[in-house]
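Need residues for this backbone.
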């Protein structure tokens, strides 16, 4: 495992002039330059980005969902950026984002607006208008004769561009952005370290509020309040307890009252700090855990660290995934499953960044036949689980690949179940 030096690690969330912290200007610049470098090495003359994480990666704009293609960005091979957004967003961006010099009003060609319009003619109009706006900008910036990358594969939108004689390339664009985003900059890594620290504040709140009689939803509400207090955006996650911990409860957090002897499971996924997403599990027990719960936890923890010890630059995912349980260890008979691909989300490692799932993916259901190579600077979450009688335990670490192994960004104690005394 990678050992940090004394001065490495989480700094404060505020801006100060007396020490270096996350440098958001540097992060914006380095992300933009990585995307531009790959664009310039390709056959594309420009890329139209519709996916929110890709837009944020190139522009620094805080894309938080929206209603579909009511915001999109054109990046040209000469480095020019044109961004389209809804009326209020665009007007605010012109005031607040001086690093973007060409912000225009968007016509929403995909998503909620076309869907709600009720007529095919309206949908066709919106798609064609969106394509016309982008085509006009391509002509203005002199990239209309070269292929344009597009990071979504919507057939109607592609057809609208082809009507304008634009050569649309989707695979090249998607691959290009995946390649740009898979290895993180130092500031991106610090964002992930920061969101892990914020999640730990949420775990602490759980230890202070979970007790017999409290509802899962009440405990989750307390945890979310703590996350927001530290500057996070909580767009996912849940707390479950008792029988809702195995298998993972389909309704996520419920109004179930916690009871003595319960396992309490907290899943802080999709908690964002400056857009960078967490995936961080921990298991708690109300009172002293049973021997079965301790044994299950030990198995889950050991499986997790078996995988972590295999991860290093140059290692391939087909070899790393052997650290995860086989079908017997997956308890496939309980699920009536026969193949690893049926066990999605139970034991795997997945990349973290501006999306919850980025490269790499390490999973017995995929990696043996489709391996990829691990690179220094990749960031990921590694997760395992194990049943304990009628309940279940889970544990997960957030890590970054360093030159000689992984640095663990998550710091909540992992050696044993966290016991909550009440």
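Answer:
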């Amino acid at each position: 495992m990678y050992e940090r030096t004394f001065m490495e690690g989480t700094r404060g969330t505020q801006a100060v002039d007396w020490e270096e912290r996350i440098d958001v200007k540097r992060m914006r610049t380095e992300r933009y330059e990585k995307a531009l470098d790959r664009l310039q090495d390709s056959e594309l003359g420009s890329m139209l980005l519709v996916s929110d994480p890709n837009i944020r990666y190139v522009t620094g704009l805080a894309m938080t969902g929206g209603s579909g293609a009511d915001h999109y960005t054109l990046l040209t091979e000469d480095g020019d950026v044109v961004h389209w957004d809804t009326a209020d967003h665009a007007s605010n961006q012109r005031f607040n984002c001086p690093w973007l010099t060409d912000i225009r009003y968007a016509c929403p060609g995909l998503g909620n607006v076309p869907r709600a319009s009720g007529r095919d003619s309206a949908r066709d109009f919106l798609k064609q208008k969106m394509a016309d706006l982008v085509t006009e900008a391509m002509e203005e910036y002199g990239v209309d004769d070269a292929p344009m990358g597009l990071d979504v594969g919507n057939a109607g939108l592609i057809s609208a561009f082809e009507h304008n004689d634009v050569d649309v390339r989707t695979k090249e664009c998607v691959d290009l952005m995946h390649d740009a985003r898979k290895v993180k900059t130092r500031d991106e890594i610090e964002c992930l370290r920061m969101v892990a620290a914020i999640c730990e504040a949420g775990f602490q709140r759980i230890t202070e509020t979970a007790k017999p009689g409290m509802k899962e939803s009440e405990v989750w509400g307390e945890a979310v309040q703590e996350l927001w207090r530290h500057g996070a955006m909580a767009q996912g996650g849940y707390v479950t307890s008792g029988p809702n911990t195995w298998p993972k409860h389909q309704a996520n957090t419920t109004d179930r009252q916690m009871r003595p002897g319960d396992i309490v499971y907290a899943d802080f996924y999709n908690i964002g700090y400056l857009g960078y997403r967490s995936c961080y599990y921990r298991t708690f027990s109300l009172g002293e855990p049973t021997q079965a719960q301790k044994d299950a936890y030990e198995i889950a923890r050991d499986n997790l660290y078996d995988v972590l010890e295999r991860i290093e630059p140059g290692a391939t995912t087909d070899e790393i995934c052997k650290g995860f349980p086989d079908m017997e260890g997956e308890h496939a008979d309980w699920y009536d499953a026969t193949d690893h691909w049926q066990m999605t989300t139970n034991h795997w490692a997945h990349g973290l960044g501006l999306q919850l799932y980025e490269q790499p993916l390490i999973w017995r259901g995929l990696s043996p036949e489709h391996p990829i190579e691990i690179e220094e600077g990749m960031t990921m979450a590694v997760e395992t689980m194990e049943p304990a009688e009628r309940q279940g335990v889970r544990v997960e670490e957030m890590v970054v690949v360093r030159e000689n192994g992984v640095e663990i960004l998550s710091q909540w104690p992992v050696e044993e179940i966290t016991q909550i005394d009440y």
